[in-house]
Amino acid sequence: MTSYFTLIFILIFLPLVLLAYTVVPQRVRAYVLLLASYAFAWIISGPLVGFMLVTTVCVYALGLGIKRIFAQRDEELAKVKKGKRAIKASYAQRARRLLVAGIVANFGILIALNYLGFFSELASPLLGLFGWQTPVSVPSIGAPIGISFYTMMAVSYLVDVYRETTPADGNFGRLALFLSFFPHIMEGPIARYSQTAESLWKGRPIDGKALYRGMLRMAIGFAKKLLVADRLNLYVKTVFGSYESYDGGIIALGAVLYTIQLYCDFSGCMDVSIGLGQLFGVDYPENFRQPFFSKTASEFWQRWHITLGAWFKDYVYYPVSLSKPVKRLTTIARKRFGNRYGPLLVSGIALFCVWLGNGLWHGAGSQYLFFGLYYFVVIWLGGFVEPSARAWASEHGIDRDAGWYRVLRGVRTLLVIFVGELFFRANSLGDGIAMFSRILTGFSLRSFADGTVFACMSRADFAASLLFIPLVFLYDLAYERGHDLRSLIEQKGFVVRWAIWIAIVMTVVIFGAYGIGYIPVDPMYAQY
Amino acid sequence: MTDNETAQGVKAALRALAVAAALLAALLVASRLFEPKTNNSEFGLFDAGTSGIAAEPQDTIDVVVVGDSLALNSFWPKQFWGDRGYTLFVCSSLAQKLPEGYTMLSNALKNQSPKVVLIETHDVFVPFTWEFALLNELQMHLPILRYHSRWRVFKPSDLVTRPEATWIDPHKGARIENQTDAVDGEDLDEYLDQIDETSAAEEIDTQGDLFLGRMVDACEEAGAIPVLVSVPSVVDWSAERHNAVEAWAKEHGVSYLDLNLSTEEIGLDWSTDSKDGGDHLNASGAEKFSHYMSALLDDEYDLPDHRGDSAYASWEAL
To answer: Which residues in chain B (142-161) have CB-CB distances under 8 A to chain A?
Structure first.
């Protein structure tokens, strides 16, 4: 078992967990989920799962430590009438020390397991400038499944405890389950403690409605992944693996198809995760909201991997923006560059931190670093250009809400996204640059006309893609226009709704890209 | 629990059963529709060579061989027939794993009652996952999971045509190849040295143990004698593997023939009898090996001679 998209998970693991969850008394259900979650992680990662336990113990102890400090503060504040600010500052500093220790420890583990080799590679030429050599090669022991996801959840919990927006949990099992629950451990969503911990621990009984909701959502996820994503992998893997053999037209299509593949893979996995959560009475936050209907790159990131963007906003962007040095700088910039451009200029600092983090979060590679900084530049510059564009449109009497203008903005945004994903998928930054250059300098449609394109993926798989990609588009379009298709189906009678579910499953079984001729693709974000 | 709760529970269970039954029915119908309509690769059958046995007349095969490419390239049915007049069919495929071997054996035993089943042992050391084993098991019962990609070539006639095995394999499952690539001297020295030494055993993992056991059980249930066989291979064989299989065979009361210990008697010349540097035998090696094996099996298991019997016409034409 390597993911949710395996027979062992669907036919053995999940039914066993559902059965055990149903037959045990309600007070024991959370322990069943905890056991199942650690078993799931163990099956995939083996003893490395110990790191998840270390993180849990760490944030549990530090959370209680922070709670104790604040309790002492409150006791002391209750005794005095003057000097409260100094007391608060003193205790806040003590609590901050624990918070920093927690952040350093958890990100330290993440960096040590995921990034040390990369940083060592980066440092090597720098050290070389001074005539030094990297002393030793950095050994890699691998990382447990979901380390990037549960680490961010752990840090968010600790920060929220520090901010006193979440009470420190004295129940170790509940905290452990919040961090390790198997539906999110592969690819998220990066849930907050306040969103899932309580409902997880309640152990709600499985009812027919929740069961159908969950299974429908899961079936849709399987459909996105197996009908579209894994099929497109044939084309994407071929083109990105040996781009030197192809002209710019083939590579450009590769960037487009990879973007669709990644969307269907990641959002499909999210459907499965959210569906799994629904089976057990847990509502995960949505991670996607029709991202390809975005008008700007900034909006795209509010609709794509939403929980990651929200994490960076809450725990990086705002803290940096509201830090004393940045506020001071904003005041200076406001005076020098005016109220419009001054704050915008300084906001680049926080934005840079966010996108540097976002790029590195995706992986230890120069292409990921570039990917993050690419969006930093696009979004930051977009902030400068937007007012001018608005003014220009107004001057020329252009209605920015007109359909054609919205389409134009949408297409522009899609181009930005495709270029970003090209670099993201490239095997290295060098490959990304070479592929992009080839699109610009060697673009041709000849390969489509003479059939060379079918060497990358068969005609039948192209035909299937041409059927299923528009279906995904229409599904998203319905949601974009406010039609909740899943709810509509859920409201149908027993026979109709289950017939729809069986129809989806059978479509996946017959047309799914699995078995002979296809390469199994583990969920793509599970590597992060 | 109240009566109302009990009634609701029963209703939910019945509904769950109804959904499961409907899904299973859909899978079975799709399996029938998408299953290749004959046992030929032209009709989309994978590993068609192993399915040739389905078209052999009932109960006409005396010896069935399961295994991977080592078996495929070593057992030459023509030689067995010519030497001793008994029928040997090779139900092997390239890079076959034990669960696939089990499937092929099960399929073969549906229509045949062989006296002996030879299980080539290289498979035992080819790792596979439980996921692979589960998929293989499901594919046995729900062919749609194996043949779903036939939507590409689906014809309206598939809706009404019943699957029927009509293709007789002229090679009886074997794939004998002519090219020659001599064994490297060092490899050969190492191989020959190992033959004389006894050493530790390589581990047969849980999956290997399970599926080897299932194959042996399937043979015994069908009244066939299971025999583990290691065909000569400089590259794939080792004393550790020999020891492991020997111990397993002893523990389970199964015969084990390691032909790596008999290369002199077989008359193998590794400079001319391998197609790829000692991994697989070529036509010359297969001929010598099959000649030796045909006598060995006949002497040991007293196999019938069908030569001259009109019911075995396709064998006369080999």
So the answer is: 144-146, 148-149, 151-152
